[in-house]
Amino acid sequence: MLDKELRSMIGQVKDGRMDRRAFIQRMAAVGLTAPLANQILALGGVAMAQSPAVYKPTKRGGGGPLKLLWWQGPTLLNPHFATGTKDQDGSRLFYEPLASWDADGNLNPILAAEIPSVANGGLAADAKSVVWKIKPGVKWHDGKPLTADDFVFTWQYSSDPATAAVSISTYGEITVEKVSDLSIRILFKTPTPFWANAFVGAYGCVLPKHLFADYKGSKSREAPNNLAPVGTGPYKFVEFKPGDVVRGELNPDYHMPNRPHFDTIEMKGGGDAVSAARAVIQTGEFDFAWNMQVEDDVLLRLEKGGKGKTVYATGGDIEFIAINFTDPNTEIDGERSSMKTKHPILSDPNVRKALALLVDRESVKKAIYGRAGRTTANYLNGPEKFVSKNTSWEFNVEKASKMLDDAGWKVGADGIREKDGKKFKLLYQTSTNGPRQKTQAIVKQACQKAGIDVELKSVVASVFFSSDVANPDTYPKFYADIEEFQIPMTQPDPALHMRRYISANVATKENKWQGQNFPRYVNKDYDAAIAAAETETDPVKRAALYIKCNDLLWQDTVFIPVMHRLKVEAAANNLRPALSGWANETDNIQDWYREA
Amino acid sequence: MSQYVLRRLLIAVPSLLAISLVLFVVLALAPGDPFSELATNPNVPPEVQAALRAKFGLDDPIHLRYLHWLNAMLHGDWGFSFVSRMNVDTLILQRLPATLYVIGSAQILALLIAIPVGVYAATKPYSLFDQIANTLAFVGFSLPTFFTGILFILIFSVTLDWLPFVYTTDIKATGIRWALEMIRQAIMPVAVLGLFQAASMTRFVRSAMLDVIRLDYVTTARAKGLGQATVIVKHVMRNAMIPVVTLIALQMPAVFGGAIVTEQIFRIPGIGSLLISSILSNDTPVVMAVTFVFACLVVLFNLIADVLYGWLDPRISLR
Question: How far apart are CA B99 and CA B257, in angstroms?
C-alpha cells in the first residue's frame, strides 16, 4: 500500500471521518493484523480507543425502533432543571455533554475533540484550569453550528441563581471563558484535582445559546424549548408528554460515524418495576427497562425462557446502616440529636464494632439483593483505584457478645443486656421499602441473639428523604439510634461522596438540618485528610487520602455497609446497551445497537 | 325550571369554595416536599432546594398561597407544575383523551351488560338465569381491579401473547389499522373496569326493577292486555331507572377523573395516573387542579341527575 494513502487514512481516523474498525478492516485486507493496525494508528497520533464498548454497526440507521420503558417517565426535558435521573435520562436523548463516563469510570469524548490531559496541554499543572477542545463541524438539530459561545452561555445560564437550575453547584463555583470558536477554558478558584465535572455527564449537557438566550434567569421557566429540546444528540425531538412518553427520530447529521443505529426512539413512562421487567423479559413488548428494583427471585423466574435478560452495571452506590453519635432522646434547646450530647450506648467504639459484627451481609445478599449486590466492608466502593484493601468484615454473634460483655453490657434477667441499670435498646429506622424492611428483620434477629433489643421503624420515603424542617422523621434529623438507606455515587470520583462527613457539615438545628453529615461524626484526622485530598494534584497521593478517609470511617464504625448495590436493568436478548455504573442509563445512548 | 338550575348553581359556589379551601389546607399540611428527590443527591447543595422553594412561593404563609391560587383559578390560570415546569391545564388536557376513551368505553360496556342482564333477571326472579347472573355479579365485585388486571395480563399477554399490556398513545399506523390497534390495546383495561362496574350495577338495576315490577299499576297495565315487552320497557323500566340514573350520574365524574389503579397497571396515560404520580412527587398544583376539577364535576353531574329526575318522573317537581 502506498505510504501516502496510509497517511491520509490515518488522518481520516484522526478527525473521525473514518472509524477505527473500518481502518483496521482495510488494513486486514492488505494482510496486516489488527494489533499492528492499532499500533500504526497510535504512531500516527491517534489515541488508543478509550471506550471498551465495541460498536458493530457499519452504517447509520437501519436498526428500527428502540423502545425504552422507564417506570417513572420523564416529566421535563431541560437537563438543568432535571429533578430526578428520569428527567436527565429523557433530556440526554437530545442534549449532549463534552464527555460521558464509560463502564470503567473513564471519560469517553462526545462533543469534545479530545479528553484534556497534561500531555496535550489541556490540563494546567496547578490544577486551576482546564481547556477543552470542541469537536469541529457539530450542528444543532436546527442546523446552527455548535461553538464555544454555547458552552459559555450554558455556564452563565446555570450559574445564575435566578434561573434556579439544579446544576448550579456544578457551575456556580467556576468561570468559563471562550478561547477560540472551538475551545473553552474552565477556571477554578482553588486547585481542583477532579476537573471533569462541568460539561461532563448528566449535568454537563450544553444548551443552544440561540434558543435559550432570552430565557436566562427569572424567565427560565417560560422557555418554549424546556419542553421541546433542540440539541446535538443522536436523536431529534419529535414529541413529549410529561410522565407518559418521549419520542425522537434519527438525527441524519449526527457527528459520530455510523451512529445512531436506531431509526426512532421511544421512552414510555408509568407503571411499576415488576410489570416493566415483564414487558421486556417475558413478552418482549419493549427493548429496555430501567432501574429494576425487583427481588432477584422474581427476575430469575421471569428470565426462564424469556425474550430478555437482566444486565448489571457496577458503580459506587452504597446501602448502609449509619450510627448516631449523638443522643436522640435528650432534647437540648429544642433539638434532639444535638451536638451537645453523646450517644449513651453507641459512643463506645467497641459497642459500635460489636454492632457491625451482627449485620449478616451474606444473608442479606442471598435473601434480598441476589445478583444486584456485593458484600463489602467499605463505604467507598469505586472506582477501583479508590477502593481500600485494608478493611474486612465478618458476621459473628459470639464475638459480638463477648465484646459487649467486655464493654460492661451484661445480659439481664429478661435476656436484654444492661449496664448501670440502663437497657441496651436501639431504635432502627429506614424508609418504607420491601428490601429495607427485610434487612431490618435480619439485623434484628441477630441482635436479639446477642441480647440487644431493637425496635424497628419505617418512614414513608417522601417524608424520610424530605428536607421538611417541621418533620421529626427525616433522615438528616436522625431522631433514632441507627438508620439505613442508600447514598448513590453520582460520579466516578469520591470528592463529593466523602466530603459529607467533615465536622463542618454536621446537621444541626442551626443549619436547618441541611448539613450533610447526619451521623454527626467528628474526627480531626478525617477533616484533615479531606482538606488535603481536595487540593492534592498527584492522583496517587489523592487516592491514598480518600482510602484513608474510608478506613477512618471503618475503624470508627460510622457506617455499617450493608450492600454495595449494582444498577439492574432489563434488556432484550439482542440489544447491546452501553451502560456504566458511573453514568445514567442513556449517557452513552449513541453507542447502543441491536445484534442482527 | 331555569330558575331552579340557576339557584342550584348559585348554591354550588360556596360549597365549591369550601371544598377548595379544605383541599388546599390538607395538601399544604401533608408531609413531603416537591424537591425531596434533590435531598439525597450529594451533587445538589441544599441552597438550590431552598432557592427553588422560594421561587415557587412554597415558603409563603398558607393563607396568602390560597388567595394566590384562588385568584389565578378565577382568571383561568390553573397553576404551574413544580415537577414538569409547565401549565397544569396543558398537562391535564394531554391526559384527558386517553381517560375519556378507556374509562368512557368501560362505562358504556358496564351499562350494556348491566341494564339488559338486570332487567331480564328481575322479570324472572330466582330463575336459573337470575341465579347465575347473581353469582357472577358477586364474584365480579369481590375481585378488585388490580387482581383481575394482573390476571388478565398473565393470561392474555404473557401466556397467550394475544394482547399488549402497555398502552401506547401514538400508534404508528393510520386508518383502519390505527383503529384496530386502539381497540386491541384497550380490550384488557376496558374489560377489567367494565366488568367490575357491571357487576355492582347489575345488582342495582335488578333490585330497582323488582321494586317497581310488583306495583299495582304494572298489574293494571298487564290487565289491559299489553304485551310483556311493552310493560317492561315502557312502564317498569322508566320508573325503575330513577335510582339507576343517580348511580350513573355519580359515576360520570369518574370518567373524567380516571381510574388510578387500572391506569397504573396498564400504563394508560390518563388523569388517574397523572394524579397518583403528582401525589407521589408532591406536585401540589397538579393535585389541587385535578381534585378541584373533580369536585366541580361531581357538583355538576348531581345537578344533571336532578334535572333528569323531572324528565323521568314528572311527579317530581323542581322548585
Answer: 8
pTM for the structure as a whole: 0.79
Joined together, the cell numbers standing for residue A263 give 431509526
The tally of CA atoms less than 13 A away on the side-chain side of residue A544 is 7
B241 is written with which cell numbers?
Answer: 331507572
How many Å lie between the alpha carbon of B250 and the closest alpha carbon of chain A?
28
Strands of the sheet containing A410-411, edge to edge, are A410-411, A417-419, A422-423
Q: Which of A345-349, A573-577, B160-164 has the lowest mean pLDDT?
A: B160-164
Q: At what angle do helices B2-29 and B62-74 cross, to 10 degrees?
A: 140
- The candidate with the shortest Cα–Cα distance to A245, out of A265, A221, A273, A274, is A265
Among B43, B165, B280, whose Cβ lies nearest the Cβ of A490?
B43
Taking the C-alpha atoms of residue A259 and residue A60, their distance in angstroms, rounded to an integer, is: 5
- Which of B90, B166, B260, B282 is the mutation pick for testing A, counting most A CBs within 10 A? B166
Cβ <8 Å between B170 and A81: no
Strands (E), A482-558: 482-487
Interface ipTM above 0.95: no
Helix (H, G, I), strand (E, B) or coil at A477: coil
Query: Which positions in chain B touch A269 (Cβ < 8 Å)?
Result: 267, 269
Tell which B residues from 130 to 169 touch A, by Cβ distance under 8 Å: 153, 157-158, 161, 164-166, 168-169
Q: Is B123 on the interface with A (CB under 8 A)?
A: no
Print burial letters for B25-56: b (CB count within 10 Å at least 16), e (below 16).
eebeeebbbbbbbbbbbbbbbbebbbbbbebb
Chain A residues within 8 A of B274 when measuring between CB atoms: 243
Segment B183-187 long-range contacts (CB within 8 Å, at least 24 positions apart): B186/B101, B186/B102, B186/B105, B187/B163
How much is the pLDDT for A426? Answer: 95
Which helix (H) or strand (E) segment holds residue A236: the answer is strand A235-241
How far apart, in whole angstroms, are the C-alpha atoms of residue A457 and residue A437?
9
Closest approach of B237 to chain A, Cα-based (Å): 42
* CA–CA min distance B51, chain A (Å): 6
